[in-house]
Design goal:
Elements (H helix, E strand, L loop, with lengths): L2 E10 L6 H19 L3 E9 L3 H10 L3 H18 L6 E4 L3 H16 L3 E11 L4 E3 L4 E2 L2 E2 L7 E10 L5 H8 L6 E2 L1 H12 L5 E2 L1 E2 L7 E2 L2 E6 L1 H6 L1 H4 L18 E5 L3 H15 L7 E4 L2 E3 L14 H7 L2 H11 L6 E3 L1 H31 L12 H22 L3 H22 L1 H7 L2 H22 L4 H10 L36 H20 L7 H4 L4 H5 L3 E11 L7 E6 L6 E5 L7 H4 L3 E5 L5 E3 L2 E3 L2 E2 L1 E3 L5 E3 L1 E2 L11
Parallel strand pairs: 1-2, 1-14, 2-3, 9-15, 14-15, 16-17
Antiparallel strand pairs: 4-5, 4-8, 6-7, 8-10, 11-13, 12-13, 18-19, 18-21, 19-20, 21-24, 21-27, 22-23, 25-26
Helix pairs in contact: 2-3, 4-9, 5-6, 6-9, 11-12, 11-14, 12-14, 12-16, 13-14, 13-16, 14-16, 15-16, 16-17
The structure holds ligand ME8.
Length: 646
């Protein structure tokens, strides 16, 4: 039995998952399911990338500890993948203990190879990309490649001798198997490496959310060394003999084109240094835009992955994402295209094929699968030949990482089957009483449907399961590609008509509904302020307002919170015996000394929260200017500290 190991990137947990995260993981799931159908021993790894400056800052912005942030957001990814019914074998987190062990062993090996040395890094860094950039990769304070802001970094750092591996990397890119795909991406990365490699800074000292550098805990390991190693730790890391387990080397690292350099330059170089086999393939897919535009929260076209999963049936989502673009090309997520593919391909072609065939079986031959006869009728022979070609085409397309071609072949076989029924006209033979010919035709149609369902099950698993269920084929073996020998559908099985496989989507009806919702919202706005409407309009009762205790607090002292860029620790007099301690996200807007002695508005009956180990016992009220400065509500000395604001 062959092994097949496929990975997705592990996703940053600074925010919630979106359509791009869903895409990569769905495509990887399609491959995992297909290779399981080949009878391979498959390992499908996905997970979350939880260390680094970007995550630490996201936690600071929220005023919470990084661990709390990563626990919360990693769970969102895990929940999403469950909702999407993905079949991963492990969901890895870089905060998992076994992962850390593997990372430390990687570093130990890289050191042993003499590839790590201490020096000073001076240059640009983007926290958003967690990447270092050379001077010529920067324009107007931003990385040209990604548009992300960069900051100047000057600090002691451990370096990895990346330059040492230039020739070996080129040799790898040029090897016959073309391990970096698509070829255009291989050429891109090859040209980059050919242009010369600089050694890579692999540690930082100005923040601490990460794996401490072995023997020098002042340094925290560069997040990409940590993150990339997940691909090894996910399948057991190193065993006692220092060997990597049976699934390594990985068959496919499926990634987006944004992180090609990390996977096709840094990762293989780390592995070469550590004496570990290189992955068999790094495949970079393209980028989705939404309605023709780059997705962004500010543009309002950001598609939350949970909402996506609520809006469309899972099979349709998978079908659209795979069928719409060749793997490697960019795509445009447009509702009309999804609806069109649903209505004309899934519903009209596949859904209709299954529906009309099963109904004819029920009404012409008592709903029972007839016995198979190797007929010599030219249409039957042609259909059997077509089936074999499709099977070979699907396998070949998946080997070449062209799932859209595999799907296209399957759907065109479904079309052939519809055409076969149209041409052979079983209803005519039924009328004439030639039941034998009816049986031959319907057997061929049913067997063709079985082939379609088995081949399509990696792409549209729910529909495939319903179809196979309707033919009483419910065992794991029934899903295997090995079951595809023409005539394999057992005689005597009862044939049912499955529930509607694909509901047609009526775009006009959706538009009308949206119009109506807008009208209702308009009406609600109009009636805003009317008595008794508080629930609908979002107004609150006076009593609810009074439940919030707002007081004037006098800031007695203020200081920076160590290790946090944005936080200040305040001590404030709110009219009680003891001062309250407050952790506030004001450090970017206020110098601590300018706050001392000021009287400001604060909420004094919030449940205390712990931030960076400090218990915060009140909240300072602030309003953000367009420039991002936090302005405070000040009160003059005439008001005593602790006075209630109402
Ligand atoms: O880069 N279209 O994590 P990340 C298609 N933690 N795919 C998209 C996409 C889009 N618009 N947006 C995102 C990281 N993706 C690192 C990876 S791996 C050792 C560490 C997908 O959360 C695509 O797969 O920024 C891309 O590579 C990935 O999400 C980036 O996820």
């Amino acid at each position: 039995m062959a092994n097949f190991y496929i990975t997705t990137p592990i996703y940053y947990v600074n925010g919630a998952p979106h359509i791009g995260h869903a895409y990569t993981t769905i495509v990887a799931d399609v491959f995992a399911r297909h290779y399981r159908q080949r009878g391979d021993d498959v390992f499908f790894l996905t997970g979350t990338d939880e260390h680094g400056l970007k995550i630490q800052r996201a936690a600071e912005d929220r005023g919470i500890e990084p661990q709390e942030l990563v626990d919360e957001n990693s769970a969102k990814f895990r929940d999403l993948f469950e909702k999407l019914e993905l079949s991963h074998d492990r969901f890895i987190r870089t905060t998992d203990a076994d992962h850390k062990e593997t990372v430390l062993e990687m570093i130990r090996r890289m050191k042993e190879s003499g590839d790590i040395y201490l020096d000073t890094y001076e240059g640009w860094y983007s926290a958003s990309d967690e990447a270092y950039y050379a001077e010529d990769e920067i324009e107007d304070g931003k990385a040209v490649a990604t548009g992300s802001e960069v900051e100047w970094v000057e600090e002691a750092s451990y370096f990895f001798k990346l330059s040492k591996y230039q020739d070996q990397l080129i040799e790898w890119y040029d090897s016959d198997t073309v391990p970096v795909r698509p070829k255009a991406r291989r050429n891109e990365v090859r040209a980059f490496v050919d242009g010369g490699l600089k050694d890579l800074s692999i540690s930082r000292t100005t923040f601490d959310w990460g794996i401490p550098f072995p023997d020098d805990p002042e340094h925290v390991l560069y997040v990409w060394v940590d993150a990339l190693t997940n691909y090894l730790s996910g399948v057991g890391g190193f065993d006692e003999a220092g060997e990597t387990g049976g699934f390594w080397p990985c068959d496919v690292h499926l990634i987006g084109k944004d992180i090609l350099r990390f996977h096709a330059v840094y990762w293989p170089a780390f592995l070469l240094s550590a004496g570990v086999d290189l992955p068999k393939q790094v495949f970079a897919h393209g980028w989705w835009t939404v309605e023709g535009e780059k997705m962004s929260k500010s543009k309002g076209n950001w598609i939350d992955a949970f909402e996506l999963a609520d809006e469309y049936p899972l099979d349709l989502l998978r079908y659209f994402m795979v069928r719409e673009i060749p793997l490697g090309s960019d795509g445009n997520f447009v509702q009309e295209r999804i609806v069109e593919r649903n209505n004309s391909e899934l519903a009209d072609n596949l859904g209709n094929l299954v529906n009309r065939t099963t109904k004819m079986v029920q009404s012409f031959i008592d709903g029972e699968v007839p016995a198979y006869t190797e007929t010599q009728n030219e249409h039957d022979v042609a259909l059997r030949k077509a089936a074999d070609v499709i099977l070979a085409t699907v396998r070949d397309a998946m080997n070449k990482r062209e799932p859209h071609n595999a799907l296209d072949a399957i759907m065109s076989f479904a079309k052939d089957l519809n055409q076969y029924i149209q041409t052979t006209q079983p209803w005519k033979y039924n009328k004439e009483g030639d039941i034998e010919r009816v049986q031959h035709i319907l057997y061929h149609a049913l067997e063709g449907i079985r082939w379609v369902a088995v081949l399509a099950s990696a792409f549209v698993p729910d529909a495939a399961q319903k179809i196979l269920g309707a033919l009483q084929l419910t065992s794991d073996d029934d899903l295997q590609l090995a079951s595809l020998k023409w005539g394999g559908l057992p005689a005597g099985n009862t044939v049912e008509t499955p529930d509607v496989l694909f509901d047609k989507i009526d775009l006009e009806a959706i538009a009308k509904e949206e119009e109506q919702t807008k009208m209702v919202e308009k009406k609600q706005k109009k009636s805003k302020g009317k008595k008794g409407d508080s629930e609908k309009t979002g107004l609150v009762e006076f009593g609810d307002f009074m439940n919030i205790e707002l007081r004037v607090g006098r800031i007695e002292s203020a200081e920076k919170v160590e290790g946090a860029d944005k936080l200040l620790k305040l001590s404030a007099d709110v009219g009680e015996d003891n001062n309250r301690t407050i952790v506030a996200g004001l450090a970017k807007s206020w110098d601590p000394s300018d706050l001392e002695g000021k009287q400001v508005a604060m909420v004094t009956n919030l449940k205390p929260a712990k931030l960076f180990g400090i218990k915060s016992e009140a909240m300072v009220l602030a309003a953000e200017t367009d420039e991002g400065k936090l302005e405070l509500a000040f009160f003059s000395e005439n008001v005593k500290p602790g006075t209630r604001i109402s």
